[in-house]
């Protein structure tokens, strides 16, 4: 999405006491003091386009409006409905974007609430955690063993298995009270690319059959995935995706 479109979606002009704004037939010769009369098509303009139109007619009045405009971020759901990609959705300062379950609708919440809501199964997040003190686990694919590094909080690992039919990796858990998994997946085990290019694509991630968000860091040899899960989670599946 272009920056111009983002501006249009995310900025609402804050009207201040000494400047009045109205939509009507524009006639600069019939002005009320401290008022700006806008043509009807100005509703579809960005703030920058408005200023280009405004200054030749109203001069200093426009400058005052620009200095005192109040940027207002639309709700995350409204941005989503307007076609803004999830990763481009903006939150107000001090809030963090999560996906509200079960359909991962975008929602902005306080950072200290993220972990609590995720562990209750009410939200999903792409927040990353460092792979600290990792444990090595051997996963076999086509008679070749791959070393998968992981760290796990809030559950016990039962197994990590490659699924040749789905081209995915299953992580089986038990005794889950809610927490996170950080797993470093070798690119030679499963990777996701766009077509035949070297451009990384996203994984498709399921937790007990429901799609969830995930956080990611990348190296040349592996993709390090952070998955937050809720109480009683049993299966995390990381699926290779590709475009034909």
From TrEMBL:
Designated name of the protein: Uncharacterized protein
Native organism: Nitrosopumilus piranensis
